[in-house]
Protein 1
Amino acid sequence: MKKISITVLLSCLLILSVKNVFAQQIEISGGLTQKVLLGQQKDVFNPAIGYELGLNHHVNDYRMAHSLNYGLNFGLFNLNRVINDEGYSSQYQQLFETKALFRYDYFINDHISLFSGGEAGFQFINLKSDQKVVISSQRATKVFTKAILAPQIGVNFELNPNLAIYYKLTYDLGYYIGDQPDWGGLTSKWNHLLTNSAGIRVKIRTGFY
């Protein structure tokens, strides 16, 4: 009986120590994003400005100078066609992204952390035009799908344990599944973009492991 009591006591102490080591938090992030096309499409479309929103599970081990994050990122962008010889262009692509995320943060000190990771998911593309004659109604309602793999690196500026400002540099490698937008000239199904993002991260503690 005494041995059982000691075992139970040691088990409770172990659980309590683990609770004090691992923190579980929900991380909400959002910011502005610029996407710049690379390769042969660089001369066809202007850089895109859009918004991204992330919802992640944040795990912090207080014994180590690192944390892990995984969850989902969403993005909404407009990609404008380059101005034509007449001095204007009414055509653009409307992009919606949904991607799974994994991120590893390494803390240099209490205020700065470096991170690396990646995203994988899909981008859904609608062709749009300010002039109905430029694009048919059938073409305007068609949704094109692109698979995306996006490794990333960046830095967090930790204002406090629950709030940070981030900068992120991402290389987006995309491949059109099925048809791809042409607008008069087919390009490769492969798509390369360089993405710059900046925004804020807010961590909300939900309990302990």
Protein 2
Amino acid sequence: MNTKSAAAVLSALLYAQGLLGFAGLATVLLRDRAQAEVVAIASDAPSGPSAIVLR
């Protein structure tokens, strides 16, 4: 394998690794954000019996 093709292969591998790293980071950040929204929604919901009593 000559030097130019080795450099091209290495560049392609590094580019692919960068894309995978970016996708992994985006996945982690979006998952944490979604979990934070679920916790915020759950904390807004009443935890006990309703204060409204119908007679």
Protein 3
Amino acid sequence: MRRASWLFLVPLLAAFGCRRPDVEGFLRKPPPVTVAVSMPPEVPEREAYRKEFAAALRARLATRLVVVPEGVTPPAGAAQLQVEIRDLAPSPGSPHPAVVGATTGVAVGLLSAAAGNREGAFFDGLFWGLWAGSNVAAERDRTDERLGYRPSRVRAQVRLMQPGNPEPLWVTSVDPYEVVESMDPLPPGSRDDVDRIREEEAKGFARVVVRRLSEDFHMMAVSEQRFYQPPAPQPATPEPAPEPKKD
């Protein structure tokens, strides 16, 4: 029983006792965090998307850490959440069903023929191609029905950096399926509103990033958002009045 108890503690010790010193230092006293988002140059309305994603990340991240608002000069030693959006395309987040079906069918047919089933290779490929394509089509229909709109495909890499440290404190990759699953449906009157759809895409992305950061760093959400406020400028000290000249 004693040995079993120690074995039970091994995963906990690994989770809490094997962090790098720089990560431990960050977690003991987290500095304010800035958010920087980059978008591929071919994205339409690139700046609007960049601002929307950055705003959603700041709002969500502020329930875990102190966040530097946009336009505010960060203090010395501030960390930065660097978000590199690598793919943002008007797609349901998966290839077209016909493409999936054709690719799967060809691959299965070739494998079946290579295995010696030359006569049945065509029918094997046809069956599995139709099966794969129909599954993708059903998934697209479920997404459209749940959300009421067709979201973009969002793929990104996220890094948490600290000044003077070339190694990221934290790195994660975000795939389109996670973002779509984290989006909320829109009311019927907003399902064709491009701005509202973009806002929900940004919120879904922020939910994925902050949830993963919270899980990896064991951060608890707070009830109120915390934003960095620069110190108020000190009033200038008045110069002493000159002493009166003696006659």
